[in-house]
């Protein structure tokens, strides 16, 4: 009985894929460990010495895309300097910050916000996402507003959308920070429920550290949710994320 050429080709393709997966499962952890060591050296040589780096994806696979975590008060210049230094390490494919901002493709191109960020800002400029007093529970009447926010963000799907919670300076600073994080996380949940993919949403709280310009830090108007949409498409790491030709 003759064997169909298409069956032979399919079998060969499956064998190649299996071999690549087996090879990658052995080499990928070694690559990630090497990148982690080199990135740690770059961090140690930078002003942001307390920053942390990980080359493991959300699902636990080794990846060439670095996730950087730093203190909330790290200034933007130092953040950019560190991100560029890590991105310049041979083999690093891109840089993500744990708060949602991103430096992709190993480049030092400046990040720019997308038009949907302005659309959301215009919506929230007239109305406010409101919460119960000292709580992350939403007050009644937010459904329509959150629906409009989701609709405004939908054209920018594929970007990283950071949801940033703010409080005023009244009360305990640590409690305010925790509350701002909880409120940002609640808004993230609401947007996911309205069809915005969870993988592109990052919730972050900054407490009372960034009041509205011109307002007293204790002014209740500082209690707000802001959005930052980064015009870089996030790269989805595959189980075996190996370097391409250089």
Tags for this model:
60s Ribosomal Protein L30, Chain: A; alpha/beta; 3-stranded mixed beta sheet; 2 domains; 246 residues; single chain; 7 strands; 4-stranded mixed beta sheet; 5 helices
Describe the protein's architecture and organization.
- The protein has two domains: 5-103; 115-230, OmpA-like domain (60s Ribosomal Protein L30, Chain: A, 2-Layer Sandwich), CATH 3.30.1330.
- The longest helix has 40 residues, at 5-44.
- Helices cover 39% and strands 15% of the residues.
- The protein starts with a helix and ends in a 16-residue tail after the last strand.
- A hairpin with a 5-residue loop joins strand 1 and strand 2.
- With 246 residues, the chain is of the alpha/beta class.
- The strands form two sheets. Strands 1-2-3-4 form a four-stranded mixed beta sheet, with helices on one face. Strands 6-5-7 form a three-stranded mixed beta sheet.
Shape: globular
CATH class of the largest domain: Alpha Beta
* Number of helices in the DSSP assignment: 5
Proportion of beta-strand residues:
15-25%
Low-confidence parts:
18-24, 102-113, 232-246
Biggest sheet strand line-up: 1-2-3-4
Helical coverage, percent range: 25-40%
What's the CATH topology label of the largest domain? 60s Ribosomal Protein L30, Chain: A
Number of domains: 2
- How many beta-strand runs? 7
Structural category is alpha/beta
> What gyration radius follows from the Cα positions, in whole Å?
22 Å
Query: What is the CATH superfamily of the largest domain?
Result: OmpA-like domain
CATH architecture of the largest domain: 2-Layer Sandwich
The main sheet comes to:
4 strands, mixed
Distance between the termini: 47 Å
